Amino acid sequence: MKQVDPVAFGNLLEQMKQLTEALEKQSSFVTTWLPSIVGITAALAALLVGYLSYLSAKEQIKTARSNAVAQIKSAEAIARSQLENAKEITIAEIKANLVAASRKEWIENLRSRIAELFKLLNKIHGGVRVLPDDYDEMWRISIYIELLLNANEGEHKIFLQKQRAFVSMCANNEKDTAKWVALKEDYTAAAKVILKAEWNKVKAFT
Q1: Tens digit of pLDDT for each residue in 65-103?
Q2: Which contacts qualify for 147-150: CB closer than 8 Å, 24 or more apart?
C-alpha cells in the first residue's frame, strides 16, 4: 500500500480550510449586503417610476394649460364678436328710434296743421265772423302743409291737389254746398291715406 505524504496531506488540508473560509466570507458578504442591494434596487425602481410619473404629470399639465389657453382665447373671440354685434345692433336701434321719433313728430305736426286748416276753411265757408286775417292764415297754413309734403310723390301730389281746390273755393267765396261737401270728403280721405302711410313707415322702424 502506498503511503500518504504527510506534507502533501497537510497542504491539502490547509487549502481546504482556506476554501472553506473563502466560502464563508462570500456567504457572509451575500448575507450582509444582499438585502441592502435589493433595497437600493427597489428604491431606484421606485424613484424611476416616480420620475416617469412626474414626466407624465408634467406633460398632462402642459396639455391642460395649452387647452385652457385655447379655450380662453376662443371665449374671448366669441365675447368680442358678440360685443361687436351687440354694438352694431344698438347703433342700428338708436338710429331707427331716432328716425321713428322724427317721423312721428313730423306726422303729428302735419295732422295738427291739416286740422287747423280744416277748421279755418269751415269758418270761412260758413261766413260767420270771418276776419281778413283768416284768409292770410288760410294761405299761410296751406303753404306750410305743402312744404311738409313732396309734391312729386303720388299720394302727396293727390292730397295737395285736393287741398288747393279746397282752399281756392274758400278764397273765391264759392257757396256751392254740393261741391263743398265733395271737396271736404276728398280732402279728408286724401289726408287719411297720407297719415296712414306715414304711420306704417314709423312702425317699420320700431
Answers
A1: 777 677 777 777 776 776 676 666 677 777 777 777 888
A2: 148/106, 148/109, 148/110, 148/113, 149/110, 149/194
